[in-house]
Here is the input.
Amino acid sequence: MKLKEIIQRHHWLSVETTLLQCYPDQQKNIDGYRKVHEILLQLPSADTAMQLQICWVADEDPTEQRYHDVSGLEPSEAIAYSIEFRSWAEWLGMEVMEETYVAYTEPEIAAH
Here is the structure.
């Protein structure tokens, strides 16, 4: 399933609740996240071969903080690429990798 379809399947309230469970310190920015959610619902998706992956990263150094990594993978490569400089339309057109569904619910995918 593409990211656009996941976002369309979940109302803002469920995404907001999940977002604040994952990132309670983001309450002050919640209006901005809501606006982005509304924009993403209206944007068309762009065709791309890149797939979306979200995974939990635990650094080898136990003093470092763990985090959720959102990245893109080309089907023919085993390298994760940063997608922060890709357009939102391209993000929306990415298929979500099966491994991501194992670790995250759809509202969690939309929140990240």
Observations:
- The CA atoms of residues 43 and 108 lie 20 Å apart.
- The first helix runs from residue 3 to 9.
- DSSP finds six helices and four strands in the chain.
